[in-house]
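Hey, quick one: can you model this chain's 3D structure?
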Amino acid sequence: MRILIVGVGALGGTIATRGINASVPIWLATRSAQSAAVLRSSGLRVSGVGGPGEVRSVRVAAVEEYATADKFDLIVLATKAHDALEIGPFLARLLAPRGTLLCIQNGGVSQMLSERLGDRVVLGGLSNLGAMVEPGVYEQRNAGHLLIGEVAGGISDRAMNVAEALRPAIEMRVTANLAGAIWSKLLLNCSVTTIGALANQTMRGYMASAAGQQVFHRTYDETLSVALATGTRPERMIVDPVPPEGDRAPWIDQILATYGDIKPSMLQDFERGRRTEIDFINGYATELGRKVGVGVAMNAAITAMAHRIEAGEIRPDPARLDDLLRQAG
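Sure thing. Here's the predicted structure for all 329 residues.
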């Protein structure tokens, strides 16, 4: 397969570096010609889990320059969610006949692009691969894997072929229940990641307070209710997505063991003044919840607060937890 990776951040860059080292035919696309020139000059380096790797010669260009290039069999869309929706229709025109656009964003991006471009074009996916990044330099923090599947569900030859093509770069898994896997990750993103970002704390930090515990459980339970109301069966990932009846402490401990001390990626977006993916996380749960008649007051309050932080009106702080409880009622 001729493969184009669009977006050379932590995930796209790590996959690209390891894949090119393994002789996978990969090209890279950046937002601008200037960014492409930087990567051509610096090359790519990865360290950490999986061992070191380096690529000195990088086939990279600004994304629009590929309009007149040879077509691709697979395009891996590894940008932020809002960028994916903007660039997706253009990328579909760069595909060879029967080519595939693999979307690996949070929330409902693969579903949204599938509705626009068709199930035949779009394949969905998600990743738990962790990597810290600066341009061209990646530090892989966990083994991670890329889980892919058909948006409409089921196992297909196409998904298996894409998994085989990318396997030299990253551990690949195929699921028959992509929607359930996406919602399982969304459950944790809506609660663990976003709450920590608003409170400027890790999960272990905010769960030490009564307010943090209340916000977490309300957010998680709302989001799970939305998933179930849409007919989705969330897949088990880190934990069983349906909390146990009664004592939840052992269930919480399982989540803390994996995510408890990780700095939320959304908090890093706040610190760098970047647009967040809140509309595709808690905002997505809020929108769907309202459509299916599920109460989503906490998700709505979280979404609104994240936008206020993006606008510079307030700052992430532990006091935001009490603010959320007041605003959600």
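One thing worth noting: The chain has a mean pLDDT of 94.
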